[in-house]
# Entry
Amino acid sequence: MEIQVSKLRELMTLMKPVIPRKVTLKATTYIRVGDGKAVATDLETMVISDLPEATEPMLLPYASLADTLKYIPGNTIKIEAQSRKLSLSWNGGSASYPTEDVQDFPVLPELETRAEGLIDGDTLVPAMQAALPYTATNDQRPVLSGVTLVLGNPIEVAAGDGFTMSHQALGLTFPLEEKAIVPARSVVILGHVFDKTPRTRPPSAGSLIPVITARRQMRLALIGENKLRVGFGQTASVVINLIQGSPPEWLQLIPKGKPILQSHLFAPQLEAAVNRVRDIARDGSNIVRMAFADGKLTVSAVGEEQEIRATLDVIRTEGEPGRTAINYAYLLRYLAGKQGIITLSQYPDNAPLVFEYQKSPRVLIMPMSVQWGDEKPAAAGENPEGKPERAAEESLEEQTGERAPAPDSAAEAASAEPEAGEVAAEPEAKPTATTTVTKPAGKKRRKKATS
# Structure
């Protein structure tokens, strides 16, 4: 096989995410080329790319070849395989690596296409990526560890970890009504291939402008009993092993009727207020309280013998005075990167809080039950003054009477720092928000005497 160095580099970049991190089959650390195609798989997702130069079947060692390509000059490289040995030669140099038998590489069998249709990829792929933060990352309930495609008319995209949920109905249709759960890692790979493959020029395009502005079509197909194939024109395709099982009835989890409180807030101001109180919130079961009154929102947290409040103006609130409590990590995850106005809706009976922002998915977060200062004091030993607050939190499915999921990483994340890049650095205090720190009255701690 003789191929341009630049084209081989592009192929390695395209295949990078699908090369498995944990190796269960050695052959999957290679890229199979031959019959005009290049194929890579992690046994869950397979990426297939057109490669007309590849006529002779062989396995290319991904790690070794990717490292060597960094230092290869020239325009073309020649690759040959013989007796489990791969030989590379280019103008001014050569290299050789051991390889595996091409027959050891997993092959995708011929599968019946049950349904297929052209889908606007510029709408579907970003919607699936937007749902990723709300998937569960443990394997206790596999159906929650992926993004659910509710195929039909319209196509819906949903994900949830038991305590948070994302849902979006798209203006797209598919000829078969079916639910497909796409693994989270497969969504990442799908987005990567979507970004790296070129747009197909429309037949009537006389310039680059129609190519750039045209909506990018993908061919979505259900194949076999449990696979999804996504085709990107004539250049590449992705085949995904779907997660088996029935996902929750996402629409049933969304509160119905009129909210008892609805507030329109400027997202960066709310994010800054939550960042101000989050250190103390960590000492109080990760709770931030939100109280709406007189056109303002007070965000507060109670910790070990201390309390902090941040007050900000709201754009408009209907139904005040009102109040709720929420896990600060869930809230910061939702607010990250949003620069405009969000809408928060609260419903009766401790239903999920509903957040909406422009054309982004609607997000549900379960509130936390707390004792407010004007309520009947807790029984002795339940929440003594000056002690970190404890709160109960129901799952989304408990709200609808379904089986509640086991605690997952979404709950665990509440007690950890948000990941780098998730939460913007805390800005300086603005005139529209004020922060107050107080120490509630309580017994002073005494050092334990030692002898």
Q: What stands out?
A: The longest strand covers residues 113-120. Confidence is low (pLDDT under 50) at residues 380-388, 401-432, 440-451. The CA atoms of residues 122 and 216 lie 6 Å apart. The domain at 2-104 is CATH 3.10.150.10 (DNA Polymerase III; Chain A, domain 2).
